[in-house]
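Incident log, entry 3
Record: Pyrroline-5-carboxylate reductase (297 residues)
Problem: checksum mismatch between cached and fresh output.
Input:
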Amino acid sequence: MATKTATSVARAAPAAIPAVKSIGFIGAGKMAQALAKGFLSAGCVRAENIWASAPSEKNFEFWHQHGCQAVHENRTIPENCDITVLACKPPQIPSVATQIASTELRTRLLMTVAAGVPLKTITDIIKHVPVARIMTNTATQVCRGASSFCLTRGFTSDAENLRIIKSLLGSISFCEEVNESQLDAICAISGSGIAYMFLFLEAMADAGVKVGLSRELSIDLSLHTMAGAAALAGEDRAEHKAGKAFSKGFSKLREDVCSPGGTTIHGLHKLERHGFRSVVMDAIEAATERSKELGKK
Ligand SMILES: NC(=O)c1ccc[n+]([C@@H]2O[C@H](COP(=O)([O-])OP(=O)(O)OC[C@H]3O[C@@H](n4cnc5c(N)ncnc54)[C@H](OP(=O)(O)O)[C@@H]3O)[C@@H](O)[C@H]2O)c1
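Fresh output:
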């Protein structure tokens, strides 16, 4: 069940979770930082109780600046944290799991955000701790992410684990439990998809410059247009979910902007002629296949 609707425009309310005093990340890079920033903004965990580990110090400045702990030894994370998030690259997951398998764990729940890596890769190595496989994106840092997860079952703590994951992820993102088989496609839509939105923004901003606007104005207009479209579509989606007959869906919202013989339909014709929909579908398909490949390595 979704814990945050597509229309949520406000930042999440402070969401301290009694069972979670500390969260640690193995891997201190972009995704770990996006999650940590979100958890801090949402008030889930105090900064001094957030930890990260990485071999080098190149990402340590972020963690120190935010009052978090940064260490080199991966084992320090599960030894000190209620939740451990594996946030290193997919090929590193088996060796990191092996490193921490023999550790005396404080951690009650492991999470992995690695694209494509199946739960089984981890549960074959670490058998005594529940593991959640999560696909999210970097908008978690502004509490506007899109997350999906699946969770190993069969522990006495199953219900509590589910509640913790929904509370944590729900405070920084839309959050939905899914079947593991869906996660490669989800990686393509929400994990990678955010980059496609940025590319579209860049293209819009460049186009504005081409037709004579200043870059600054073109960037602002492009950004507010995308944000406005997302807000409008989000409200419409919420109405649809509430069973309101007047909800429109993406197509009707687009049609509403197209006056007969007008500017928008002329522009849309160009997009269709150049295969805009097909190229977006190809991109999502390619990213899905890549996620599957990463899981096989
Ligand atoms: N970025 C995204 O938008 C996104 C979205 C969805 C999922 N993900 C997933 O998130 C994971 C991390 O991606 P990222 O973009 O955050 O990558 P990143 O910025 O390159 O960060 C990777 C981190 O892993 C650390 N690391 C490397 N080897 C390690 C080891 N043996 N033990 C512990 N840490 C190690 C790196 O250390 P150094 O700091 O020393 O280099 C770095 O801090 C990936 O599995 C990716 O599939 C990312």
